[in-house]
Amino acid sequence: MKDMQIRFSGSGGQGLILSARILAAALAGEGRFVAQSQAYEPTSRGGLSRSDLVISDREVEYPLATRLDAVVILDQVAVAASAGLLGPETLAIVDESNVKEPPKDAGHIVSLPVTARAREIGNARVANIVALGALAELTEIIDPDTLRGKMLALVPERFRDLNAEAFDAGREMAREAETV
After folding, report:
1. In the predicted model, what is the mean pLDDT of residues 23-48?
2. Range of the domain at 106
3. Reported pTM
4. How many domains are there within the chain?
């Protein structure tokens, strides 16, 4: 599998760092090398938050993203943070209700009702897991069942059913989505 660089971005409180940790753990469990970095503004909710993964089949030489193969953007505040790292091959998964102006430099934009679907499931706080399911389906970076299993192992037991439904909803939306 080719090396990849992925970013989860949005605003604080959206669980993006958790999504990145889940994906990193699942990939490491499959023998991939993963470097994860994160940055967030010093506000608990609403400020910019992002987490990057640099993924390889060999040791990662530089742990910070220098280009993005895929980016998940759940809030408009995060669009500008990826400027300069996007290109014609970049897949951008954006929340259609929170990102009205998607990044212009991404080659493939998939706009999904991530937060709306999370609310329908019962809790807007699982939007990160909806997005994780969509990312797994669209990038094929990891077997979605492997990722789902790791996610269920890492979330609190009382939230497993909710997160399982969110992950499956994200995969389903991705299968039905159109790339712009």
Report:
1. 85
2. 4-176
3. 0.92
4. 1
